[in-house]
Design brief:
Chain lengths: 287, 474
């Protein structure tokens, strides 16, 4: 169980792996995530599911290397095995035929967006996907997104590929076309989601965001993943990960995501000294 | 080497209650090794000799799982420690755990004749239970009860905490095949994520689980019932399902600032330290805030565990903030005693009204209201009432909320026809564990709300007996 069947680097600091997990693959629905431990002393980290193949009994995971656990994962090879994987977790996406759904994925956020838009497409929605990244190299899963989109728009912050600008600028252009948009699903870094919500609120387009707070158990037992939505405390792991974007306190989310910055650096620097860690490249990572 | 607990011994019995050796408080407040060290053979023999072997053993009436106390103590008296352990295990599959975390002073030892009417101190039944179980684990290798022929019946337990493990042991002994499903990656539920290493070493939980595994119990970890499959799915594969998912949804105070960094539920704080071994960080990858000044809200065993964990994680000052007085503390006397010995401070008649943070969103202190005791409430304890206008501040850089747990809705909300009460607890017969749903039993904290390990064990045992009756097995 939890054998790594394939693993590859798809962008600097971003990897994709196919994991044998037939039970989770069978039960997984769009919007749900998993929690894994790479090794015996590893953290429990929540990762989004980028795709699944029920027949093959596999899940596709995509992650960005940010801390010791994700860097460790990036050093693993096909044939190795994850210590644990638990899921599916979280409340599935509410999917129905809404009309036109705009899916916005920023950076690594494209990975969790993929199964959601796939589900929305299967339910008969017209899908306009906006995929963005800082620069060309960091664009991921473009072909996967193309397959499930009626229209795919790509942007980079530096103009190295596609439209020059932020995903929010592309979104504004799409809104300006006047086509009625029933729903917007935005997943990406906190500043991106905050910016998207600012645009959609003005245009009065209901917006779902998927949050990635720090978690431990993932079943509602510990409350590490507390987020505030509409002034109320919610648990990201069971009440979410998707919430009404208009109601989310993004400021709090940012601060809570930074809670372990100090210890994370300690752990990462320690990992760099190990046989496994010294193989890592640390693009923008630990100093 | 035996220390005597009381200077003045009663006339009968001549031998005083034998104290259990413990790690020195100053030393142990900085390590995660077990606090209590357990009896050696000589102390156990001496303590067992105190038992009066009453014709009517009141002690047994005080035991939620009805261990044959006089019989096992008699075996200790005769030096047959292994048999004594098996005697205990007939009724209690997890004696090494119960011997450590049971509140014996309110159960078997409360009803012991030796301790009645202030005559003296009760026989130390809990310490003897711990001793024989540890002894058997060390020297009784390979001994296994004879199991009957398999009945072909299959039962699933949702949750591997004390209720589920007890049920698994009881049913396996009757030839029923049991599969225990656990959401986390380790088996034991609250025994591994909640109770700290220094009170219950995880190796002991593992050894008890291994013993069940040797008996044929099957375990599945990382298996979140309600997500990966439902109770209804389980009913298609199993003859009966037991729900023992515990009370795992932390309560917060609902005061401003509760989501600041450095504010934890006790569940999270303890899970990070215990299950994820944050105390070994960075040897283990999971961090936990190492507060310098830590406050803990609440007065139960979990609050004591959190405070004592904070000390061991290097806090300079740990303060329990409690709305009532020492008299009303719901924690076991022994836990409070240990906490005080180790240097935990108590700020009583104090209710936090606001948690204050800095720019970065980290906790820096509390705004508290002075309380006084008013009329008794429903629980019989005097209700704390605010003293008008009296507020004060407490500095802290870590705050732990240990005010209890609500029922985790994951399983009830995904199970059709399973009745819950207004708090979300599963409605089940307290004698049989029977729920509103056919072939589904439940017990432990998910039914009663947060209680003790031994009550959960009792519920697991009762549900097992009720299942056997339903299946027509004697």
């Amino acid at each position: 169980m939890f054998d790594i069947l394939e693993i590859e680097r798809i962008a600097p600091g971003v990897s994709r792996a196919v994991i044998k997990a037939p039970d989770i693959a069978r039960a997984h629905q769009p919007g749900q995530f998993i929690i894994l431990r790479a090794h015996e002393d590893g953290e429990r980290i929540p990762l989004t599911v980028a795709d699944k193949d029920t027949q093959a009994g596999t899940l596709t995971l995509v992650w960005q290397e940010v801390g010791v656990s994700t860097y460790y994962l990036g050093t693993m090879c096909a044939g190795e095995r994850l210590q644990d994987m638990c899921g599916p977790l979280g409340t599935p996406t509410h999917i129905e035929k809404f009309g036109t759904v705009v899916g916005i994925g920023g950076g690594i956020g494209v990975a969790p967006l993929h199964p959601i838009t796939k589900g929305m497409k299967a339910a008969g929605n017209r899908i306009v996907s906006i995929v963005g990244a800082r620069t060309k190299e960091l664009l991921i899963m473009i072909e996967d997104m193309r397959k499930i989109s009626d229209e795919l728009l790509i942007s980079t912050d530096d103009g190295s590929f596609g439209i020059h600008g932020f995903v929010t600028q592309v979104l504004q252009d799409v809104i300006a076309r006047g086509e009625p948009i029933a729903l917007c699903v935005a997943i990406g870094p906190v500043p991106m989601m905050r910016a998207v919500v600012k645009v959609t609120r003005e245009a009065n387009i209901p917006t779902v965001v998927s949050l990635n707070p720090i978690m431990v158990d993932g079943t509602g037992m510990c409350g590490a993943c507390r987020v505030e939505v509409g002034g109320k405390t919610k648990f990201g792991c069971v009440d979410g990960p998707e919430f009404d974007g208009f109601q989310v306190d993004f400021d709090l989310l940012s601060k809570r995501l930074a809670m372990y910055k100090g210890p994370e650096l300690v752990a990462l620097n320690r990992f760099r000294e190990t046989d496994r860690g010294c193989k890592c490249q640390f693009p923008g990572g630990a100093a | 080497m035996s220390e005597i607990e009381q200077e003045t011994t009663p006339k009968k019995p001549k031998v005083p209650r034998q104290k259990m050796p413990e790690q020195d408080p100053i030393e142990r407040a900085h390590n995660f090794y077990e606090v209590a060290l357990g009896y050696e053979n000589d102390l156990a023999l001496l303590e067992a000799s105190r038992c009066l072997k009453c014709k009517k053993p009141y002690c047994m009436k005080g035991c939620p799982v009805e261990v044959d106390i006089p019989d096992f103590v008699e075996m200790v008296k005769q030096g047959d420690f292994i048999s004594a352990a098996w005697k205990v295990k007939e009724k209690n599959s997890l004696p090494r755990i119960a011997g450590r975390v049971c509140p014996q002073e309110t159960q078997c030892e409360a009803t012991c004749v030796l301790g009645k009417k202030g005559k003296g101190e009760p026989c130390a039944i809990g310490r003897l239970e711990r001793f024989v179980a540890d002894y058997a684990a060390k020297y009784g290798e390979g001994a296994m009860p004879e199991l009957p022929k398999p009945t072909g019946l299959k039962v699933a337990s949702v949750g591997s905490g004390p209720a589920g493990l007890t049920l698994a042991g009881a049913l396996t002994r009757k030839g029923i095949s049991v599969t225990v499903l656990e959401a986390l990656h380790e088996l034991g539920g609250v025994l591994v994520y909640g109770i700290p290493e220094f009170r219950l070493p995880k190796a002991i939980v593992r050894s008890e689980v291994d013993e069940l595994r040797k008996m044929g119990v099957e375990f599945k970890t990382n298996w979140v019932v309600g997500r990966i499959e439902t109770v209804d799915d389980l009913l298609e594969k199993y003859d009966g399902v037991f729900i023992g998912t515990g009370a795992g949804a932390p309560l917060f105070l609902n005061i401003p600032g509760e989501n600041l960094n450095g504010v934890y539920s006790a569940n999270e704080y303890l899970t990070r330290s215990n299950l994820m071994k944050a105390y070994l960080f960075p040897q283990s990858d999971t961090p936990v805030a190492r507060g310098r000044k830590v406050v803990v809200f609440g007065g139960g065993n979990v609050a004591m565990d959190s405070a004592r964990t904070a000390l061991r994680l290097g806090a300079e000052e740990v303060t329990i903030v409690y709305r009532r007085t020492m008299e009303e503390l719901p924690a076991r006397a022994e836990e409070v005693h240990h906490a005080v010995e180790e240097g935990v401070q108590f700020k009583l008649l104090t209710a936090p009204v606001q948690i204050k943070g800095n720019e970065a969103g980290w906790v820096v202190g509390l705004r508290c209201q002075q309380m006084k005791l008013g009329e008794p409430d429903d629980s019989g304890r005097r209700r704390p009432v605010p003293v008008e206008g009296e507020f004060f501040d407490i500095e802290c850089d870590c705050a732990i909320v240990a005010i209890g747990n609500a029922a985790n809705p994951l399983v009830p909300s995904t199970t059709k026809g399973l009745d819950t009460n207004k708090w979300g607890n599963i409605v089940a017969d307290l004698e049989t564990g029977k729920t509103s749903k056919d072939r589904v039993w439940a017990g432990g904290d998910i039914v009663t709300g947060a209680a003790t390990v031994i009550l959960a064990m009792g519920a697991g045992r009762k549900a097992a007996l009720a299942m056997l009756e339903t299946f027509g097995i004697s």
